[in-house]
Specification:
Chain lengths: 247, 127
């Protein structure tokens, strides 16, 4: 029998367009349980009206992103032990920079639509699915795999530039564009993100890469895409007018 | 509240739960605003030159007061912090050494600290 921890779960609750309020739930939990388990416990035994998103419970669907004690986490893989202590507080809030639909559920539809515009494929050959500075996978098997981004939106919530501008594309979309561009050299993807609300809105806080649960390193990808865009523009300057390629 | 809005402007300056990258961004923004304010004041003061030597001389006398010296030191510190961190941001923003931004941040901060101390020594202890 594991030693149980008494914790206070503080949940920021909100109905659409109404002011938010905090509700407290005293729980006894195994510290190796994940934060999502605690939230489900509240829903199962304390309050059936609590709303939150989840599906896979193993960091694949990207639905369970929330802020836990101020920091963006995939709650299904965040053990209680890592984020609080015995008799401690666990404050759970919805992701920032998305409209709140209810309680911990945010509206990700606009985000998904922008992701789609990048034409990112969810699978890629093994060698292209990884970051270029990661070691190559063993060459025995030349397969494909799911790419890393699970579209959880944690990076958008953590980004200080996304904080003040609704029109900013956000880290995940820019990272997706970089991924597609490096695979395909498709100039339309570069055009899509070469704008003030795209690549050039980022202020180098590197928060996205710190919270990304899936090794995407969006900040690195944004800077790599900037480099590709600047290089492309410089090359264009020295081309004859009839050879120029947009953007 | 939860959604982005220009009214969230104070959140730019909220370092809680955030990474050193955000702290650097906040410091960069504060020093940038400070330097810009200083530049404006500086130009106004230079305008005094146009009002003739008497107006300017009385100002120069004021400039030797300790309060103004501390102010000048703040401007120097802001310039050093903003400039060195600005170099880090400019380099890493174009995809160079991006993976080492954190190390570059520590390096630029330590170097800034040393330079600020050297300037402070020269200013307050006369070199
Ligand atoms: C020493 C050389 C300097 C360098 C290398 C430098 C570099 C930079 C960089 C890279 C940024 C963008 C930061 C970001 O993306 O968040 C920036 C922002 C800025 N800088 Fe400088 N800078 C220098 C000097 C100055 C001076 C002397 C002033 C004022 C008189 C100034 C005023 C500003 C302002 C107002 C911003 C915008 C701040 C913001 O958006 O947060 N800079 N600087
Ligand atoms: S880049 Fe990382 S944090 Fe952002 S949506 Fe994709 S997996 Fe989530
Ligand atoms: S529930 Fe699917 S990622 Fe957490």
């Amino acid at each position: 029998m594991p030693t149980l921890w008494k914790i206070t779960l503080e949940i920021l609750r909100q109905r659409q367009n109404q002011p938010p309020h905090v509700e407290l739930f005293e729980l006894e939990v195994d510290p190796d349980e994940n934060v999502l388990d605690c939230i489900e416990r509240v829903w199962a035994f304390h309050d059936r009206s609590l709303t939150f998103r989840h599906a896979c419970h193993h960091s694949t669907c990207g639905a369970c992103g929330m802020r836990v004690n101020g920091v963006e986490k995939l709650t299904c893989i965040t053990p209680v032990r890592e984020v609080t202590h015995p008799n401690g507080v666990l404050r759970v809030e919805p992701l920032r920079n998305f409209p709140v639909l209810s309680d911990l559920v945010v509206d990700v539809s606009g985000f998904f639509q922008r992701m789609e515009q990048t034409q990112l494929s969810s699978i890629a050959p093994l060698s292209q699915a990884k970051l270029p500075f990661e070691p190559n996978p063993p060459t025995i098997w030349q397969g494909q795999r799911l790419i890393d981004c699970i579209e959880c939106g944690l990076c958008v919530s953590a980004c200080p530039a996304a904080n003040t501008s609704t029109s900013y594309f956000g880290p995940a979309v820019l990272a997706a564009a970089q991924h597609v561009y490096r695979q395909t050299n498709n100039p339309t993807v570069m055009q899509l993100v070469n704008c003030a609300d795209g690549l050039w809105r980022c202020h180098s806080a590197y928060e996205c890469s710190a919270v990304c649960p899936s090794n995407v390193d969006p900040a690195w990808r944004i800077m790599d895409m900037r480099r590709a865009t600047v290089a492309h523009s410089l090359r264009n300057i020295f081309k004859r007018p009839n050879q120029k390629v947009a953007p | 509240m939860n959604q982005p809005s220009p009214r969230n402007i104070l959140r730019w300056f909220d370092p809680r739960h955030r990474q050193p990258g955000t702290w650097a961004f906040i410091l960069n923004r504060i020093t940038a605003l400070g330097l810009t304010l200083y530049l404006a004041m500086h130009l106004i003061v230079l305008g005094k030159l146009a009002q003739g030597p008497a107006a300017y001389d009385s100002f120069v006398a004021l400039a030797h007061s300790p309060l103004v010296k501390i102010g000048e030191m703040l401007v120097i510190a802001a310039g050093i912090l903003h400039g060195l961190n600005g170099l880090r941001v400019a380099i890493t923003s174009l995809g160079f050494a991006t993976r080492y931004q954190r190390q570059l941040l520590w390096a630029s901060t330590i170097l800034s600290g040393i330079l600020i101390l050297i300037f402070a020594r020269a200013m307050f202890l006369g070199g």
